[in-house]
Write a structure and sequence with these properties.
Layout (H helix, E strand, L loop, with lengths): L3 H16 L5 H13 L7 E5 L5 H9 L4 E6 L2 H10 L4 E4 L17 E7 L7 H12 L2 E12 L7 H19 L7 H10 L4 H10 L11 H10 L2 E10 L2 E8 L1
Parallel strand pairs: 1-2, 1-4, 2-3, 4-5
Antiparallel strand pairs: 5-7, 6-7
């Protein structure tokens, strides 16, 4: 049985290992939530795409307590961890790559924003077009897609792309030196060894929720998919090296 206290300990450990890859993770969260807040509604409807255990959504709800936040992910273990850690959030189990995934959201009005951090790169380029096209059907005109992730530009500007990677690598070295936090694989190994999580681990194994590779790592993949989905303004709202916050405005 996963208790709230145990889930919060796992969440603290999750956040630390994520920061090992993103030393400016909290700054990116803050900028993303600033953009949602700048829409001007105290009660925005926000969809968190590939929410994982809810780190971003929990911070968003802390800033905007009247917001309706719908957290969407296909991983039963991460959803179970998030539900135990953050009972105030609503989690929906859905695979973004499948048609009509928005039907499970049960929104009472069009969403004001869709947000995501370090998640959508797992989705292949062709599938990403479907995700953004489906998203556009539930996002209001003028609504935002805010996607924080590592996105590369070596297909268009290879020299700048190399420099972006160098900036990110040097920032990471300054932040951690030789004392890097636990990495992704070590965190998952520990999760799989916890008997309190045996049922969730079994559900995860059955669902085939493990990720492999970075399928849509290029900025151009996301820009093209957003353009085809009818987003009229697309640009980088914040950037540190190749870590950026991409914003698209629904037309």
């Amino acid at each position: 049985m996963l208790t709230h206290d145990a889930a919060m300990e796992w969440m603290a450990r999750w956040d630390r290992q994520q920061e090992g890859y993103l030393p400016d993770r909290e700054e990116r969260f803050t900028v993303l939530i600033d953009a949602v807040e700048a829409l001007g509604r105290p009660d925005p409807v926000v969809i968190d795409l590939g929410c994982g255990p809810g780190s971003l959504s929990a911070r968003l709800l802390e800033r905007l307590p009247e917001a309706q936040v719908v957290c969407v992910d296909a991983d039963p273990l991460l959803i179970g961890l998030g539900r135990a850690a953050y009972p105030g959030l609503r989690f929906v189990s859905a695979d973004l790559r499948r048609a009509r995934w928005t039907e499970s959201l049960e929104l009472d009005r069009p969403a004001d924003a869709a947000v995501s951090t370090t998640a959508l790169h797992w989705i292949s380029g062709p599938e990403l077009k479907g995700v953004y096209a489906e998203l556009a059907t539930v996002l209001r005109p003028g609504g935002l897609l805010l996607n924080g992730d590592h996105m590369d530009t070596d297909d268009a500007t290879p020299t700048l792309s190399r420099l972006e990677h160098a900036v990110h690598d040097r920032e990471t070295e300054r932040a951690f030196g030789e004392s890097r936090p636990e990495d992704w694989r070590a965190w998952w190994d520990a999760i799989e060894a916890d008997p309190a999580l045996s049922e969730l681990n079994e559900a995860r194994s059955t669902a085939g929720a493990d990720h492999h590779g970075s399928e849509s790592r290029l900025l151009s993949d996301h820009v093209q998919a957003l353009e085809e989905a009818g987003f009229t303004e697309i640009g980088t709202l914040w950037q540190r090296g190749n870590n950026r916050l991409l914003c698209g405005v629904r037309g």
